[in-house]
Amino acid sequence: MTLKDLSKRLGLSQTTISRALNGYPEVSEDTRRRVIHAAREHGYRPNSQAKRLATGRAMAIGHVIVTSDATSLPPTFAEFMAGAGKIYADRGYDAVISFITKHDAATYQAIHANRSVDGVIVHAPHRLDPRIAMLRDARLPFVVNGRVELSQQAYNWVDIDHAQTSQEATAKLIDLGHREIALVDGQSDLASVLQRRDGYLAAHTVAGLPVHPHFQAIGGDMSEAQGYDAAYEMLSWGQPPTAFVTGSLAAAMGVRRGIMDRGYRLGQDISVYSFDEDSRHMPNGNCVPMFMAMKYPARLAGRKCAALLIDLIENTPFENQHVLLHADRISGPSIGKAPIQLPKAQT
Predict the structure, then answer these.
(1) Which range of residues forms the domain containing residue 91?
(2) Which percentage of the chain shows pLDDT scores above 70?
(3) Which of 94, 234, 255, 263 has its CA 20 to 30 A from that of 321?
(4) Phi and psi for 134 in degrees, rounded to 5?
(5) How far apart, in Å, are the Cα atoms of 174 and each of 178, 183, 268?
(6) Do 65 and 133 fall into the same domain?
(7) Same domain assignment for residues 151 and 99
């Protein structure tokens, strides 16, 4: 399908079609949607180099990763990029992943000055993330995959309600009679980790239960090894937890191994409620889910972030957009009623 073929099929001039696909404001929204739909249906993609010349844009989206923060990138990154990549392909953009050693204003100013990308998606935001101010100062369009300090909303973001989902998970375990509940999660300065901790604490407060600080294993990389080490140690204590909430499926798998090595049964003696990253590389079981989990829609988040950022790049700046996605509950056999008496752990 060529531009000429698409022009004949739609009864529009080649100039109108080109302007519609390139985001020119003088094309009506109805016409733009009609052209984009037809282009997708018939597999038409404008020449990237021609589009760069026509728009003066790089036709690329940046993903800047700090090498010292590599462990803070969640297992969902590949799934997120798969979702974002679908939007990039449909709308004629490339993805550029850059690795830097530290965040500084000069980095983002240089990215903007070099015109290597048209906008940036911010990953693994911290509670007070300096990148927000840096990107604003550099006047570089950006969307945050997550949120920073919840009181600071003057930027575009896509996220799930980590606090609410964590509170629901913890409250479910409390309803099943668990009173000693451990939390295993990632780096303590990541916004999502702090929000999940807030939800965990809120569930205890609502139920009128004390919080045991030594049951909070926060500060790791959310790996299988972190989950195993936390569970294996805590289950040796005189008053061990009877349930765990984990910030990742990898950590839940480690907790499961620790439970088994201590001679306990998952879902009967010890319960585990996890966040499921929706990763095809690490599924929550095969045909049947292994863990009770709240499923983070990583591919959908990638599509939403990419589309929101490209809209921001191609159109007149609009009011900040906040997209809150829903985390689906996945039923699995990893939780059950709190045991009346927990047998002594194996050593």
Answers:
(1) 60-158+298-323
(2) 86
(3) 94
(4) -65, -45
(5) 5, 13, 15
(6) yes
(7) yes
What is the four-CA torsion angle of 189, 191, 197, 200, rounded to 10 degrees? 180
Q: Quote the tokens at residue 116.
A: 């290597």
pLDDT of the residue at 114: 78
Please give the Cα distance from 304 to 96 (Å, whole number): 18
C-beta separation of 127 from 148 below 8 A = yes
Instruction: With 0.90 as the threshold, say if the pTM is over it.
Output: no
Cα Rg of the chain, angstroms? 24
Give the CA distances from residue 74 to residues 154, 166, 250, 284, in Å, rounded to whole numbers and listed in that order. Answer: 25, 17, 10, 16
Tokens representing 238 are: 């005189």
| CATH of residue 171 | 3.40.50.2300
204 compared with 128, residue with greater pLDDT: 204
Would you place residue 318 in the very low, low, confident or very high pLDDT band (cuts 50, 70, 90)? low
Q: For residue 136, give the nearest of 333, 323, 317 by alpha carbon.
A: 317
Q: In CATH, what number is assigned to the domain containing residue 18?
A: 1.10.260.40
Instruction: Evaluate whether residue 328 is within a structural domain.
Output: no
DSSP label at residue 56: -
Q: Determine contact, residues 221/210, Cβ cutoff 8 Å.
A: no
In 3D space, the residue among 213, 206, 149, 148 whose CA is nearest the CA of residue 183 turns out to be 213
Q: Could you tell me if residue 347 is inside a domain?
A: no
For residues 149 and 179, membership in a common domain is answered with no
341 part of a folded domain: no
Are 275 and 253 a contacting pair, CB within 8 Å? no
Residue 55 belongs to a domain: no
The tally of domains found in the chain comes to: 3
From 196-200, 254-258, 270-274, 340-344, the region with the lowest mean pLDDT: 340-344
- Give the ranges where the chain is alpha helix by DSSP (H): 3-10, 14-21, 29-41, 48-55, 77-91, 105-114, 130-137, 162-175, 191-207, 224-234, 249-261, 298-314
